Amino acid sequence: MIATVEPLAGAKPKSIAELRQTLSASRLNTWLSCRLKFLFRYVLGIAKPRTGALYVGHSVHGVLKLWNRARWRRQTITVEQLQQQFDTLWQADQAKEQVRWDDGEEPGEKQTAWSLVDFYLKNTPIPPNEMAEGVEVSVEADLARHGLPRLIGIIDLVRAGGRIVDFKTLGQTPSEEKAIHTNEIQLTSYAMLYRATTGKVESGRDLHQLVKSKTPKLIVTQQGPMTQQQQARLFRQMESYVAGLDREDFVPSPGMQCSMCSYFNECRRHG
User: Could you list the residue range(s) of the whole structural domain that residue 190 is in?
Assistant: First the structure.
């Protein structure tokens, strides 16, 4: 059985030197949102359990990964087989890491997760006979000539013709402009990684967003290849990361986002 769980966030402390060598989109997003949170998560390695909402997204992502891999390998996989995999993984992944469920929350969230998967399989814009270029492939880009760390990442799906797809689960329907803006670092990073790996320019970058409403929704947000402006902005953000690490500039960023932060108590105690 394929396990989909990732290591606990921050489960292994890293030195500044290690963190300077490589950089992922998720790590850069954490750095830009709150440098003190970055310290707790990546430098000190303080592990935190997933919330129920995050585990729903994790489970949906894991089953769609199995579905895409089967199609990539020209294997037949039925909805019933996927649901069996989902049931197994839902329990198996929780045996590997802690999930912070509210009282009585888990059964409903499990049903929500499968409903999102089932809805996507019935409404996906991807033709059933389309052959993908890659599924969940680990890729990297050497940016040493720019004085930057090596960029690393795992792209959810590269469709035929070099169209990059990233899967998201959301609590509310997003606007197209906001979705593109809030996911810019990730989608720009994926474009950099794709170009470095294939030597080609991606044909486009799509967000397939599953909304956890009473009746599930699928919102597909499309944009073209990475622009020069987006690449320049990503490089400036990476430069900020490198300079901040060198200064050990782990300052807090208090704001509305703090109410949902798993490191709230550590932040309040931090000197």
Answer: 24-269
Q: Which residue has the tokens 């606007």?
A: 175
Tell me, yes or no, whether 261 lies in a domain: yes
Q: In the Cβ-directed half-sphere of 141, how many Cα atoms lie within 13 Å?
A: 25
- Which two three-digit tokens encode residue 83? 């649901």
Span 21-39, pLDDT tens digits: 999 999 999 999 999 999 9
Residues 6+ away with beta carbon under 8 Å from 44: 10, 13
The domain total for the chain is: 1
Q: Examine residue 172 and state whether it is found in any structural domain, yes or no.
A: yes
- The residue type found at 14 is K
Q: Reduced to 3 states, what is the DSSP secondary structure of residue 188?
A: helix
Q: What is the mean pLDDT of the chain?
A: 93
Residue 231 has pLDDT above 60, yes or no: yes
Measure the CA dihedral 68/70/75/79, to 10°. -80
Is residue 244 a part of any domain in this protein? yes
pLDDT tens-digit map of 107-119: 999 999 999 999 9
Name residue, tokens 């949170």: 37
What is the CA 9 to chain-centroid distance, rounded? 13
First to last CA, the chain: 45
